[in-house]
Amino acid sequence: MSTFAKPENALKRAEELINVGQKQDALQALHDLITSKRYRAWQKTLEKIMFKYVELCVDMRRGRFAKDGLIQYRIVCQQVNVNSLEEVIKHFMHLSTEKAEQARSQAQALEEALDVDDLEADKRPEDLMLSYVSGEKGKDRSDRELVTPWFKFLWETYRTVLEILRNNSKLEALYAMTAHRAFQFCKQYKRTTEFRRLCEIIRNHLANLNKYRDQRDRPDLSTPESLQLYLDTRFEQLKMATELKLWQEAFRSVEDIHGLMCMVKKTPKASLMVVYYAKLTEIFWISSSHLYHACAWLKLFSLQKSFNKNLSQKDLQMIASSVVLATLAVIPYDQTHGASHLELENEKERNLRLANLIGFNLDPKHENREVISRSSLLSDLVTKGVMSCATQEVKDLYHLLEDEFLPLDLASNIQPLLAKISKLGGKLASASSIPEVQLSQYLPALEKLATLRLLQQVSRVYQTMKIESLSQMIPFFDFSVMEKISVDAVKNNFIAMKIDHVKGIVTFGHLGLESDGLRDHLTHFTESLNKARGMIYPPVQKASKLGEILPVLGEVVEKEHKRLLARKSIIEKRKEEQERHLLEMEREEESRRLKLQKITEEAEQKRLAAEYEQRKNQRIRREIEEREREEAQALLEEAEKRGKSKGKKKSILEGEKVTKQTLMERALNEQLRERQEMEKKLQKLAKTMDYLERAKREEAAPLIEAAFQRRLVEEKMLHEREQQQEIQMSRQRHDGDLAEKNRLARMLDNKLIFQERVIIRRQAEFDRRRLEREERINQIIQARRQERDAMRKKIFFVRTEEERLKKLREEEEARKREEAERQKKEEAERQAKLDEIFEKQKQRERELEEKERLRREELLGRSTDRPSRLSEARPLETGTAPAAAAAAAASAPGKYVPRFRRERVDGGGQATPPEPDRWGSRSDDHPPQSSDRWRSDDRKPSYGNKGWPSSRGAPRDR
């Protein structure tokens, strides 16, 4: 360990070693100087040494040396000059960044050079294998060896500086600047792993700051400056995380911001909150948390509308449209239906955390938190004026999806609106924190919502529908995708439907009837009836020997059960006792092991402490001896120099042993003697100077008085001369002004004439313009009056036309009502007439039937009078007897002959032409047809006593 009397000597020694190429020795020499306890008082030379020290560390890529040196230098200048430490650290980071940029500029393939997953990891195994197998290294490998080490060193530099500056109230600004530069480094070179580690480092620093509250230079977060620096760092971290697509780290950054605000119990500014909610919208959209995404958009809309005075109407309209579409994109059912208790508890805790982040609630009590739901967001859209600011397409889409009931036309009405919405969006002019809004990202969620609404509305109208028809009604997805959506909806109890692929149909049900209790109600009813039947009519059991055993068997079973329970309890107690014994043994063994380990560690610590103390004492002793030797040598050299300068001989013999004590005594005596001589000389010199100064003043006093009198005379003469010159110049100026006035007086009349002419011309111009303005105003008033009259006429015409059309409609409705009443009355009259005719015909038929009955009785009476004659003639004229009888009956006046008897007579060849019936039909080949009036009445024909139709509508032949 090299020691130097002054720090300048170490700096000179380091420069000499650097010039001869020994940078390692120079670095070690400076490191020994900086870490030495001898130089703990800050001076400007130490700052120069630190500049040279960090330059050597950067050139040689010695991050550990740089960290040790900066820590020691922080101890030195912490309380004296913190700005010096800040300058050294800035110089250190500047050199590291410059070296990394130089290495990057030298590399041709940057992407291959930076293809390393972890800058803190060692060389990968495949690289080692490749280096041993291949003889020559490729260009990419040379680039890797050139660029990667410098980027590792730059990353180590950032970590070192953050570790040195952490939790220091005097270096908060430098800490924030370093963190921002480290974020930019991760963003520029796409270092995701290092970004995660950087966020964790900053997070740990804040945790330690909150944990160790008794530190000396701990920052106070309650001050606005410190809080703003910490907030800026976290918001920069949030921005970089979203730009690097590290969404989990972005969410942790959001939690960090919220935790920081909970620590200080203070809400950030509106400008920062806008950035906060803008990033939350991206995070929740990526994580498919559409409910919290919509809530974040609503908060963002409220902030922009309240605090952004430069927000244009178009930008506000785009933001409001995003809020409405984000709310509509939320699934309209709860996805926790049927979840377990543990899942529900985890979901509840997660919802409370997210609600705190969105609402920025700094109160940790649960009862103060409001529950976020889709229905509450939809109500907030109206109450907070979001719907009034949204575009017309978005409003129409909202009403179709939430208010209208159009099961067949819903998809066809929504499709053009979605096509228009997909084209909306773009960059916002005045909302800097929201650079761009794209409404097309909500199309898949809106199509899914439209599919769910259509299925819900169709299930209310139809019970069964074909799969092809349903697929045509939903043009957004294929049937396979729609099937997945419907399965999820049925699972979460949103709709009730079943798909039968064999029959190709979809069956819809009712949610109330599709519950588990009603789905199997018949099965439960059957089981209950079977149990009741078994109790009313128990099955007949055959008498056996078991009947004798059964009463005793219950007691035996009970005793055996009790014995088994007792045995089980004994076994459980033994197991518990054994486990307790094992646990005690393990605990004793663990305590014995920990005690032995503690004794060993204490012994080892004592040994290490003793060795350390011994080494420390030896080092201190060596340093004291070395320091005494150096001081004795310096005193000896100084004494020799003083002896040579005074021309004295050496007072120290050559063979005499020189010690520090003797040298110090001699030096003190010499210094005392010299000090006494110097005091005598100074006293003599002071007396001489006193006499000399007094003599000089006595001689100079009359000279000064004479010079003062001469100066008064000269200044008086100068004043009189300047006064005369000023009077003369004033007279000359007055005379010149009078001459100029006389010269210009002759033009006064012309000037007045010109002035009057200009005034007249301007007055005329003013009158002309005033008249033109009045005429223009009159024309505008006349045009507006005409327009107002025309509008009034148009309104009067429209109202008159509406009243006329309304009157025509009322007259038409009255006419239709009268026509309907008239037709109804005519129909009633026609029906009454038909009923009367029907009654008359029935009466006539009853009379004819009575006559027929009397005739048959008369015929039967005659036949009994002539039985023998008929029996004799029957074998000969079997076929002609009925005909003769019919002919006889027909020839008898006033007798009724049935139609079938007359036809038989005609068939025998002796029948006369048939009489025309009462309906005028004379043809036997065609049955009589009823009249048109009777055909118009759709009444059934009446039947007689024999079951044949009456003559009113029955056929005349068989």
Automatic annotation (TrEMBL):
GO biological process, one term: translation reinitiation
One Pfam family in the UniProt entry: PCI
Main localization, broad class: cytoplasm
Low complexity bias spans: 881-893
UniProt xrefs under PROSITE patterns: PCI
Compositional bias (Basic and acidic residues): 840-875, 915-941
Record's subcellular location: Cytoplasm
GO molecular function: mRNA binding; translation initiation factor activity
Sorted UniProt keywords: Coiled coil, Cytoplasm, Initiation factor, Protein biosynthesis, RNA-binding
InterPro entries: EIF3A, eIF3a_PCI_TPR-like, PCI_dom
Region (Disordered): 811-830, 840-958
Any coiled-coil regions, as ranges: 93-120, 568-698
Domain PCI: 322-513
Single GO cellular component term: eukaryotic 43S preinitiation complex
Family per similarity comment: Belongs to the eIF-3 subunit A family.
Database matches in HAMAP family: eIF3a
Subunit structure: Component of the eukaryotic translation initiation factor 3 (eIF-3) complex.
Its job: RNA-binding component of the eukaryotic translation initiation factor 3 (eIF-3) complex, which is involved in protein synthesis of a specialized repertoire of mRNAs and, together with other initiation factors, stimulates binding of mRNA and methionyl-tRNAi to the 40S ribosome. The eIF-3 complex specifically targets and initiates translation of a subset of mRNAs involved in cell proliferation.
Protein name: Eukaryotic translation initiation factor 3 subunit A
Organism: Tripterygium wilfordii
Upper lineage: Eukaryota, Viridiplantae, Streptophyta, Embryophyta, Tracheophyta
